[in-house]
Amino acid sequence: MQRLAMDLRMLSRELSLYLEHQVRVGFFGSGVGLSLILGFSVAYACYYLSSIAKKPQLVTGGESFSRFLQDHCPVVTETYYPTVWCWESRGQTLLRPFITSKPPVQYRNELIKTADGGQISLDWFDNDNSTRYMDASTRPTILLLPGLTGTSKESYILHMIHLSEELGYRMLLLNYLGKIGSKTPLMAAATFSVGWNTFACSDSLEKPLNWLLFNYYLTTCLQSSVNKHRHMFVKQVDMDHVMKAKSIREFDKRFTSVMFGYRTIDDYYTDASPSRRLTSVGIPVLCLNSVDDVFSPSHAIPIETAKQNPNVALVLTSYGGHIGFLEGIWPRQSTYMDRVFKQFVQAMVEHGHELS
């Protein structure tokens, strides 16, 4: 018993000295710490490669469009590797404006007055220094339309302008394409993180966390944009009521649906959902969506409808958020969305005749 007690005291002292040494040298300087870090890193890498990094789902309504994309826009069939430390939907969405760079772009503004007294502001990037298309009359033009509350100064728009400059070009709405069919002067279109069903989008954004992170902020942006021109709307809507809206749905009910002459908010949301007109699109359209996008929930993506139109291709990634699609360790210069945009635009300009 005495021998056992001495052994226990000695073991206790040795353990105390060991722990004291660990505290003194620091956890990360110990073999145990390094082993734990290495083990965690290996486990995380295995999880990331097996569950996060995946090839996108390519859904097309025709075999010819599918082959065309695989030949000339191979990025849609390659594995998308979201930023390893930021792959969750909300993180991708929130961080993208702050992480990605803003390439310098000099616009030429053109203001077009409409017959109803309104005006359309176009920011042109002429790319007069293009060596590939020196004649402006033959230079391909890309029309970029920012999303809700967006402008031509958004980082993702500036990156698309920069990529268009590299290709030699100078700078779409699915509802428009669905209404006009093949009569449009456009040769092709691409959409990114489109909200397919407005009802589903609103429901998702009204969940508590999404409302806190996105909905309320966007509502205040919309209110700010219309309040600048308050005097133009006071005869049609109750602007004080509009400025008290706490969600996008409330804003649309009190302002947007009224200004566009809809009888109810449901009528407006039904008409504003592009999934209804997808079968009528008459030109090649590539639609990139992430199935974890809280702005456009996966159950509302019209996969079966897209299969009915040979002009439509859906590219669905498992991660990417809303206009996020960050990739790489530090995704400052380029995103997966940028690469899809560049390859698809170049494919349509240079090889679009193959789809005729």
UniProtKB/TrEMBL annotation:
Transmembrane segments: 25-49
Coiled coil regions in record: none
The protein's name: Phospholipase ABHD3
Gene Ontology cellular component annotations, sorted alphabetically: membrane
Summary of the function given for this chain in its UniProt record: Phospholipase that may play a role in phospholipids remodeling. May selectively cleave myristate (C14)-containing phosphatidylcholines through its predominant phospholipase 1 activity, cleaving preferentially acyl groups in sn1 position. In parallel, may have a minor phospholipase 2 activity acting on acyl groups in position sn2. In addition to (C14)-containing phosphatidylcholines, may also act on other medium-chain-containing and oxidatively truncated phospholipids.
InterPro entries: AB_hydrolase_4_CS, AB_hydrolase_4_sf, AB_hydrolase_fold, ABHD4
PANTHER family per the UniProt record, alphabetical: ABHYDROLASE DOMAIN-CONTAINING PROTEIN, PHOSPHOLIPASE ABHD3
Keywords: Hydrolase, Lipid metabolism, Membrane, Phospholipid metabolism, Serine esterase, Signal-anchor, Transmembrane, Transmembrane helix
Domain of life: Eukaryota
Primary location group: membrane
Membrane topology: Single-pass type II membrane protein
Family: Belongs to the AB hydrolase superfamily. AB hydrolase 4 family.
Places the protein is found: Membrane
Organism (species): Mandrillus leucophaeus
GO biological process: medium-chain fatty acid biosynthetic process; medium-chain fatty acid catabolic process; phosphatidylcholine metabolic process
E.C. designation(s): 3.1.1.32, 3.1.1.4
